[in-house]
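Need tokens for this chain, all 619 residues.
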Amino acid sequence: MSRSRAVASSPHEFFARVEMRYAGLVLLFLAGVAAYLPSFSVPFHFDDVEGILNNAYIRITSLSPSMLWAAAFQDYGHLRPLSNLTFALNYYFNVLNPFGYHLFNFFLHMVSGFCVFFLLERIFFRRTGDLGLARLMALLSALLWLVHPVNLQAVTYIIQRHSSMAGCFSLLALLCYDLGRSAKRKFYFLLTGLFLLGAFLSKETSFVMPAMVFIYDLWFFRGLEQGWAKKSWKWLLGLGGFYLLLALAVGLAVLRGGIAGKISLYYSDLNLTALERAYTEGRVLLWYLGLVYFPAGSRLNLDHEFKVSGSLLDPVTTIPAYLLIGGLLVLAMVRARKYPLLSFSILWYFGQLGIEALPLPIDLVNEHRLYLASIPLLAAVPRLLGPGRKNFWLGAVFIFLLGLCFGILTYERNRVWQVPVKLWRDTIMKSPGRNRPWNNYCTSLIDIDDIYRAGYACSYAIKLDPKKADTHANMGICLFKIGYNDAAEDEFKKAIELDPKYSVAYFNLGLVYAVRALRHPEGNDLELAKANWEKAMELKPTDAKVYYNLGAIYEKLNDPANAVRAYQIALSLRPEWVEARLKVAKAWAGQGRCGEALKLVQSSPVQDPRFQEIFNQCR
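Here are the structure tokens for all 619 residues:
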């Protein structure tokens, strides 16, 4: 009898060795690298264009406090200052090479994976009292989460650094709080506060974390003691004050910032109402569970097509979804003392998804929202199937193989992301009834000059939703590129009619007139081109292309002073733009300002052989 007990406990004792913690970290790192290796060559996609490629704020040329502040807060138009700042630092060191951006995203993901491992190890150890068992379960859970394909969008999709960064700081905060409570050291509580602040400054979804930290303390350190509410009055007062201030700040922003009108406009663009979104989100929250536990390649999608609930009875699953969610939340509260881990897992899952499940004008479904929410779901797998059961090694091997399958899915999904046309073709196959995937498929085909296929994609997108200005603008580009300028003009005007503030349509309409002016200089097309670009500049004063084209117009009108001024503005907005830098440098060199011209080309963040012209001119 004693011999069988020794044999049974030996695997636990093996994993309790301190070197096995380091071996676990190495395993996690290697698994992460293997799964995300293709991601380092993934180009910028979709929202990356406006958030990074066309974002003048992140194009810092020095590390001066004023530049860093402007990059972080972006005229208070995009209040995620810490993650914004990291994009600016990426630009400073990597310009627009995606590798550096991906490397930092991967670093955040690995730190998060290590935090999951350490945090679950501590939680499982308190529940089982067996360090080896706790470490193995934590390692397997962290492995499943780290390589799970549902997390890919938070890591590979560069702009979703907002989510992964907020998630990383949230996990660091919770881990430090656990360490502080265990070691009773104030230093860890200070770190908890700093990491929570980092999370707040990365993405708004992290505002749920103070409540999560309180629940974590109450569930796992105080065991929901009798009279907990009275003993927690400081906690409750602090939380109440925090969320009251947050509510006041949001209300003030709505009243002063004209946000109500913008929200209505955004809902119009999403083709659903706030009430329909509220009806639908209950089904979405439960659908996410299936996506985590069955992440087949056919279910992973950049732009999900999800049936909207038109009412509480359409579809019939709308009310049952909310009843089930309510039941789970009641279960979490009622059984918290007996099953604290299950209770906390339920509250964590719905808490992490709760903010983006509100009736806000955002997409119904996005995989990156599961970045933190999926942790307890995946941690449940080792608890149910893994070590500690009779078939100890069989369970461990099964979960390891499951992690291998997840890793292969993530690797293959990253390969899809490497090619924009491939990614959007995959998306239209999975969401054939949505305008946006077809429109982005059209854009990706335009980028590789496959104009006729692009035209077909845009035509189908217009058929799905003829009221999208950007789709008509893309159709106009297709027609313009094959020489049908009159038809292109009509499409751009249609885009402007649908959205009078759509600067891209004015810019492209200006291109049509500029081409006509080259062919028929006797007309007024040059003035029309200038007028449209000035309108585009008014609508989007940070668009460098507009200033560059205006510079070309001024050159045609024999106005070199305004031409150089326009090129300088374009260069200030996009310092890596070689053509704009050459225009200014050549103009200065021609004026005998060779010192300034040479300094300009030497300070370029990217090197180009054409700069030799300036050196030759200034000899």
